[in-house]
Amino acid sequence: MRHNDRADESDKRERRREILSVRNGLTPDDVRVSAAALARRALELPELAQARTVAAYVSVGSEPGTLALLDALRARGTRVLLPALLPDNDLDWGAYEGGESLTRVQHGTRMALFEPSGPLLGPDAVTGADVVLLPGLAVDAHGTRLGRGGGSYDRVLARLDRAGAHPSLVVLLYDTEVVARVPAEPHDRPVHAVVTPSGVRRFD
What we know:
By secondary structure, this protein is α/β, with parallel strands linked by helices.
């Protein structure tokens, strides 16, 4: 690893700590109100209106809330895929069939995740999505996303590339998490848009 790579990784860790500290200060009401606004903004996206299949995720803790959006997409007749974390940090996928179809899974000492309880469709199922909704901690003016550092979505994006799949990539964030610059590495793939409670910003 080159010196600049180490500096960028250190910078990423520091930015993650800062953003998570702010998120951890949010109240349940803050999260609930933001989730409702986020869903309204996201549902205005033409990409989501036209999508037959959307790969998404279930927010946990103080993450920007996604359940209202997932239910609205499902009510539209959109097929929603949700991830199940595998032991190697890769992601499998299953269909979202409503809140009762989720199961809480504790992954070691890390946070518990809500995952689909029905049949899993394999890691390649994501390649059939028209839109992929990505979790993140920040995005910059170039569309570079700062993730949590686990690498799961780097694998998803690499899988899409290998398959020649080109879904719209959309990250869901709070307003303050759209920043001037995010430390970038060569493998980082920019997103097409960010949705926050106050609106949409495009990068393509």
